[in-house]
Design goal:
This protein is α/β, with parallel strands linked by helices. It has one domain: NAD(P)-binding Rossmann-like Domain (Rossmann fold). The chain contains 9 helices and 7 strands; from the N terminus they run E-H-E-H-E-H-E-H-E-H-H-E-H-H-H-E. Helix 1 packs across helix 9 and helix 4 runs parallel beside helix 6. The N and C termini lie far apart (about 40 Å).
């Protein structure tokens, strides 16, 4: 059974991804930064349903802590799947954005991508099979008011993903980004009412975490073996 690490797996979208990957036959490593209890509970849920899972907690921004945690996981063998879902929002117009807001958002999404993925690459490449998916955002594709930091981080991930896909495609490893739009989570519900969503989204509704997870699950499967270097939107038709 192949193992997959899901960074930010304790969150709403991350948890849905973990469940979908378990259903697809992966052994899931549920990552959290500060919600270790939630990650452990999700791993226990997956195991109770007949899957294989474990949880782990570390800060993806801390390169030393991340390397140490991943080194421990690699003692049990290569990790052939990575879903980099960890990310945070610190929204503000750029004219009023603090340096902390800029660096923290980019640190988790973009530096976290490097810190998590890079140590796992050589063991993965030696198996000549692997799947890497990064959670991007519609903000990284078209921008969004008050999200210069978040958009920069996600656009950076997309660029890194495309380059990495070129570097390692010959080893049977695919690398893609999934770029959600408005997804139905508690945070989204607080920011967008139904009327606003109807104005913005051609399908007139928010997407679900299960729909995002289904797309990620497909990209992580054998069936998606000829898809790499792509940013795939899941946004209800927002242009």
């Amino acid at each position: 059974m192949k193992r997959v690490l899901v960074s930010g797996g304790s969150g709403e979208i991350g948890a849905a991804i973990c469940r979908a990957l378990s259903a697809g036959g992966w052994e899931v490593i549920v990552h959290a930064r500060s919600n270790a209890d939630r990650a452990a509970a999700l791993a226990a849920e997956i195991m109770a349903a007949g899957g294989k899972a474990q949880s782990i907690a570390f800060d993806v921004v801390d390169a030393t802590a991340t390397s140490s945690a991943l080194g421990g996981l690699l003692q049990a063998g290569p990790i052939q799947g990575v879903v980099h879902n960890a990310g945070i929002h610190e929204d503000a117009p750029m004219a009023g954005m603090s340096a902390r807001q800029w660096h923290e958002v980019i640190g988790v999404s973009l530096h976290g991508f490097f810190n998590v993925v890079q140590p796992l690459l050589l063991p993965m490449l030696r198996t000549r099979w692997g799947r890497i998916v990064a959670l991007s955002s519609i903000s990284g594709v078209i921008g969004n008011r008050g999200q210069a930091n978040y958009a920069a981080a996600k656009a950076g991930i997309d660029g890194a993903m495309r380059s990495l896909a070129i570097e390692i495609g010959s080893r049977g490893v695919t690398v893609n980004s999934v770029a959600p739009g408005i997804i139905d989570t508690p945070g989204t519900a607080a920011a967008f009412n139904a009327e606003r969503i109807g104005q913005m989204v051609p399908l007139k509704r928010a997407g679900t975490t299960a729909e995002v997870a289904s797309l990620v699950g497909f990209l992580m499967s054998e069936r998606a073996g000829y898809i790499t270097g792509q940013v795939i939107p899941i946004n209800g038709g927002i242009a």
